[in-house]
Amino acid sequence: MRVYLQLLTLVFALFSLPSMAQEGMVQVQSQYDVPTTTDRLLAAIRAKGLKVIGRINHAQAAEDAGLKLRPTELVIFGNPKVGTPFMACSQSAGIDLPQKALIWEAEDGKVWLGYNKPAYILERHQLDGCGLSVEKVNKALVTLAKLATQPSPQ
Questions:
Q1: Reported pTM
Q2: Domain with 32 in it: what CATH number?
Q3: How far, in Å, CA of 82 to CA of 141, rounded?
Q4: Could you count the other beta carbons within 10 Å of the beta carbon of residue 52?
Q5: For strand 72-78 and strand 25-30, is the pairing parallel, antiparallel, or unpaired?
Q6: Three-state DSSP class for 80?
Q7: Crossing angle for the helix pair 34-47 and 135-149, to the nearest 10 degrees
Q8: Which range of residues forms the domain containing residue 70?
Q9: Rg of the Cα trace of the chain?
Q10: pLDDT tens digit sequence for 107-117
Q11: How far, in Å, CA of 38 to CA of 12, rounded?
């Protein structure tokens, strides 16, 4: 019986791997194409007083290398006053900070904006004992994603 349970656990873990790739990531469908969604995100970031660190066009880089990739862009942004306390508590958080947002066109043509959940970063880098709150960060990211992906109410 014990061997059966171990085998069942192993099989379950193997079939769970594809969904684990999205663990800790928020994904919001956009009503716009990739360049427009990215432009809207950059405008929202700047309007909120955050610092834009970079915009990487992965599809263009692939094309430059003679490869094909559906439209995919990465935006790197943040606020050192918010991110630094996280890294001061656990410097490994620097791998996930500053914040990043990935905008991509899926195989079915839908466009998505994805970003790491702040709570996931907290857990991943064992920041729970640092007295840091992610509620404001989470609220800001939700707002930015909405501004980038949804039409403004008239």
A1: 0.84
A2: 3.30.310.70
A3: 13
A4: 15
A5: unpaired
A6: helix
A7: 130
A8: 24-149
A9: 18
A10: 999 999 999 99
A11: 37
